[in-house]
Design goal:
The chain has about 140 residues and is mainly α. It is built from five helices and two strands, in the order H-H-E-E-H-H-H.
Length: about 140
């Protein structure tokens, strides 16, 4: 029984990362394909689908920062005095471009805009970590 608990504790972060990775990518791909195949003319429907794409992109960006931190073995994306580590942003850009190209294309997100989104997510994630540490202390 103890071995099962240890295995569960080892694989739990991996399973969570996979779920967090696949969900937004799937939503983004489905939304992009719907827009493309149905050629939606109704502005309300297009707005709703754009909102889904935007949500998927932002969720993917948040996951990309977490993925980049894990891949680089870092605990925070902030280097010093609020400056975001460029290596984290580069890794996160690669992740989003690879995992969610349909949302980027559908929303016509430029490289600069994607960088801004990722920087915001990195700072937000850092603030959440600070709050969590303060609460646990």
């Amino acid at each position: 029984m103890e071995v099962v608990k240890e295995l569960l504790s080892v694989f739990k972060p991996i399973i969570e990362l996979l779920v967090l990775t696949v969900g937004p990518v799937l939503v983004g791909a489905v939304s992009a394909k719907l827009i493309q195949t149905l050629n939606i003319q109704d502005a309300a429907k297009k707005t709703e689908l754009d909102a889904n794409l935007r949500d998927a992109l932002h969720k993917s960006a948040e996951n990309a920062i977490k993925f980049a931190l894990a891949r680089l073995g870092l605990s925070t994306a902030i280097v010093s005095s609020g400056v975001v580590n460029p290596a984290v942003i580069r890794e996160a850009i690669n992740y989003v471009v690879e995992k969610n190209p349909d949302a980027l294309k559908g929303l016509e997100v430029s490289d600069d805009s994607l960088t801004d989104i990722l920087m915001t997510k990195a700072v937000k994630l850092n603030d959440v970590v600070k709050v969590a540490k303060t609460v646990s202390d």
